[in-house]
Amino acid sequence: MKNIIRKFEYRGIHLTVHWTFILVIIWLVTANIFTGMSKTGWIWSMIIVLSLLVSIFIHDLAQAIVGAIFGIEISGLIILPIGGLPSLVKRPKRKLHELLMLAAGPAVNLGIAGLLMSFLHPYEAYWNEPENIGVAYPGNFIFQLQFINLSLGLLNLVPAFPMDGGRALDTLLENKYSVPRAKKITRTISVMIAIVFLLAGVFYASYIIVLIGLFILFTVRLGKYYHPLNKKPTATHFKNSDLQPL
């Protein structure tokens, strides 16, 4: 099984769409099956996928802008359902600047979620209907878009690879440990967090929480691409065999 959906290059930056987007498809299909699989539901589900891609683009754009301000250079970007995972070439002299870059993505998503919340009245009513999560129609589209950005913002605060929180933890650990040691510690913490999500998902019978746990397990090894390299990597650095799940 190939571990990428698509690979291409833009302005010298290697872009890879990771296979874990299939988990999003599984979530949408499952949600639609539970609600009757109407034709309108499938159409709106595709709209939700496009909304997710736009939200990820905004997330990555915010980080790219802040990264450019602080002189952070990347050579590749692995596109995941929670945002892009860059491969750093040049880092800022101050780790604070790198942390600000990582925080920019979740901050923008949470800001959008907060703004959209003002258009949902009463807000609690949307959450009281479980079928609203993952199933879109004209009456709840704003809620779905709000849910997507809220999820992207909160998930990226989790201190586990490949989330922004995991990359921030890795950056902070490098103050005390070597790069390989920091990466190993972050990976161990990531696996522990994934197990917690899996157990919680089984306990609460929530397939969404289970999918989050599986996502972390499948992508934790991608954390190695975030560490800066001694030289700018070539396209072979992002070949299929390098993108194996845990």
Description:
With 246 residues, the protein is of the alpha+beta class. The protein has one domain. Helix content is 55%, strand content 12%. It contains eight helices and four strands, in the order E-E-H-H-E-E-H-H-H-H-H-H. A four-stranded mixed sheet has the order 1-2-3-4, covered by helices on one side. A hairpin with a 2-residue loop joins strand 1 (4-10) and strand 2 (13-18). Helix 2 (39-69) packs antiparallel against helix 3 (95-117), helix 2 (39-69) crosses helix 5 (141-155) and helix 6 (164-173) packs antiparallel against helix 7 (179-203). It is globular. The mean pLDDT is 81.
Question: How are the SSEs ordered, and which strands pair?
Answer:
Blueprint: E1 4-10, E2 13-18, H1 21-34, H2 39-69, E3 73-80, E4 83-90, H3 95-117, H4 123-127, H5 141-155, H6 164-173, H7 179-203, H8 207-219
Parallel strand pairs: 2-3
Antiparallel strand pairs: 1-2, 3-4
List the defining traits of the structure above.
about 250 residues, alpha+beta, 8 helices, about 10% strand
Shape: globular
User: Helix- and strand-based class?
Assistant: alpha+beta
Element-by-element helix/strand order: EEHHEEHHHHHH
How much strand? 5-15%
Q: Overall pLDDT, averaged?
A: 81
Structurally, how many domains make up the residues? 1
Poorly predicted parts: none
> Into which percent range does the helicity of residues fall?
55-70%
Major β-sheet annotation: 4 strands, mixed
Separation of termini? Answer: 14 Å
- How many strands? 4
Radius of gyration from CA coordinates: 18 Å
Question: Total helix count?
Answer: 8
Strand order of the largest sheet: 1-2-3-4
